[in-house]
């Protein structure tokens, strides 16, 4: 589903954030991406979403070489990917429904399909019935679930998360991880960047460790 082939990234005026990274993620695999602050975790995720371009090397997502995508193909590429952020980046003046529906409206879904998919996405994260609420009326854990519902509403093949449990206590973090596992169980490929070593250790999943832009260790779990 994902292949990095000797990928390097140097930001203009900056040092090399990634320095020749290679790995593959199978379809339906779940893995953690970890490493010190500044190791290159967010950069790696941004390259997959084409928020940044590599300086060297090739990235394949769903068989597509991202270097070969034209600007007009980028929105279609992004629809294959759901993204969850630490601060969930919800629109606080909009309802839960509006927040989750946003990717569908951008993709041009009609209102009926939109309503059906938003309900299914909210159901999958255990928040059915909260459509009319504003994010500010929800707990931190619920807000993060809204962020996950928005990430999966398009039924993406690949789910990326950048510190998705950064602001949550251990119990809520575990609940969020259970949700990611459920998506993996239905065939979604999941890659989670996190500092939370105790959380990773509680889960029997592959671990990619980055250090100064290189893969220090790729620990598979069988
Ligand atoms: N837009 C940018 N311009 C210049 N340098 C950048 C930019 N984004 C990241 N960097 C640098 O690239 C390196 C890797 O950053 P990145 O955010 O990918 O690391 P990270 O592992 O996600 O860190 P953290 O855990 O702190 O979020 C760092 O040295 C960072 O300062």
Automatic annotation (TrEMBL):
Subcellular location: Cell inner membrane; Cell membrane
Principal subcellular localisation of the protein: membrane
SMART domains listed in its UniProt record: AAA (SM00382)
UniProt GO BP: cell division
Record-stated family: Belongs to the ABC transporter superfamily.
Function: Part of the ABC transporter FtsEX involved in cellular division. Important for assembly or stability of the septal ring.
Subunit-structure text: Homodimer. Forms a membrane-associated complex with FtsX.
Name of the featured protein: Cell division ATP-binding protein FtsE
Gene name of this polypeptide: ftsE
